[in-house]
Amino acid sequence: MRKIVLSMVLLGFTGWLYAGGAAEKVMVSDAYVRAVPPGQPNSASFMVLSNHSAEDLVLVGAESDVAKAVELHSHTMKDGMMRMRQVEKIDLPAGETVQLQPGGLHVMVIGLQQKLVPGEKIDMALVFSDGSKLDLKVPVVKLQMTMQKPAMKHDMQHKMH
Ligand SMILES: [Cu+2]
């Protein structure tokens, strides 16, 4: 019990310590995570990241309890094929907006531990290079038919990892 209280105090302190960190300077909008058919182990999350500060910031990772692993990914065209790969970071230059979108940068959710139910929200945290974290409630969205094609291709590629 004492241990739990202690870690809560430490967490609180950490939050205070990072109050001026990158997490406070980045605005996230239009975040969503894609609902996937049963048996599909992976999904992806997309969002718009705006850095309104005068400082270059760097996203270095993301965390969520819904999956075994959460990675930052990009899509690149190679030999006429869309391939995705893990990236170590996503740069957020001062004053700029970076889009995480299907076919481009995304947060890959690998090894789902729970069903992603459309309309519900999952907890996700973005991790920045200064160690600060931004907690998000990301809605689960079932993409429309017209948008599903590239998303499915994305999944097929991922199974090859
Ligand atoms: Cu991916």
TrEMBL record:
Can you tell me where the transmembrane regions are? none
Q: Which Gene3D superfamilies match?
A: PCu(A)C copper chaperone (2.60.40.1890)
Q: Which Pfam families match?
A: PCuAC
Q: What SUPFAM superfamilies does this protein's entry cite?
A: DR1885-like metal-binding protein (SSF110087)
Cited InterPro entries: LpqE-like, Lxx211020-like, PCuAC_sf
The protein here is known as Copper chaperone PCu(A)C
The organism of origin for this protein: Sedimenticola thiotaurini
